[in-house]
Write a structure and sequence with these properties.
Blueprint: H1 2-10, E1 19-24, H2 31-42, E2 45-48, H3 62-75, E3 84-86, E4 91-93, E5 103-107, E6 122-127, H4 130-145, H5 149-163, H6 165-168, E7 171-174, E8 180-183
Parallel strand pairs: 1-5, 1-6, 2-5, 6-7
Antiparallel strand pairs: 3-4, 7-8
Length: 184
């Protein structure tokens, strides 16, 4: 956490006056825990990117939509109204406003994609071994996620490979053993 806090302290906003930290990595790696810990320490607002993924097969469509619907308005110092996805209803639902804030944390798979990087001050990659990640994800989301694990994991692999997300990260965090972080 200290390495991440130091990066946040030393980086300038790249999204207008908003400093954006993306916490990316595969499902179950520990992104949300890290994002929440950062918010607790800094007062940041956390936006969960899965609210903008259009269903179980829509991961690749999220980054450009988030760039246009959330980050571009914030960069113009405007309130953003990005459309949100209801996983329960399987459809788009009413957008909620996101105001420009000093520090915004994007928490989720795909948050470090190329189309989003011009808006990012810090990109964090969080990882753990597959067994640990699967156990965490299924413990968290249970029967809802179980039939989709392989579909989602395949999309993640494709997106991360195409985007080169891990290699672009400013900080690598491993969560399946003793805490470790390395600044790249």
């Amino acid at each position: 956490m200290e390495a991440l806090l130091e990066l946040v302290r030393t980086r300038q906003p790249a999204c207008g006056r908003v400093q954006v930290v993306a916490v990316d990595g595969p499902s179950g790696a520990g992104k949300s825990s890290l994002a929440d810990a950062l918010a607790d320490r800094t007062g940041a607002v956390v936006v969960r990117t899965d609210e903008f993924v259009p269903g179980w097969t829509g991961l690749a469509r999220m980054p450009p939509a988030l760039a246009d619907g959330l980050l571009a308005p914030l960069a113009r110092d405007e309130t953003a109204w990005p459309p949100r996805w209801s996983w329960v209803r399987d459809t788009w639902v009413r957008a909620l406003p996101v105001e420009p804030v000093p520090l915004l944390v994007l928490d989720g798979c795909g948050s470090g994609s190329r189309v989003l990087r011009p808006f990012l001050s810090v990109l964090v990659w969080v990882e753990a071994d597959v067994a640990t990640r699967r156990d965490r994800a299924l413990s968290r989301d249970g029967d809802t996620y179980a039939p989709w694990w392989d579909v989602w994991a395949d999309q993640e692999r494709q997106l991360f490979a195409a985007e080169g997300t891990r290699a672009a990260a400013d900080l690598l965090v491993r969560t399946d053993g003793p805490p470790s972080a390395s600044v790249s």
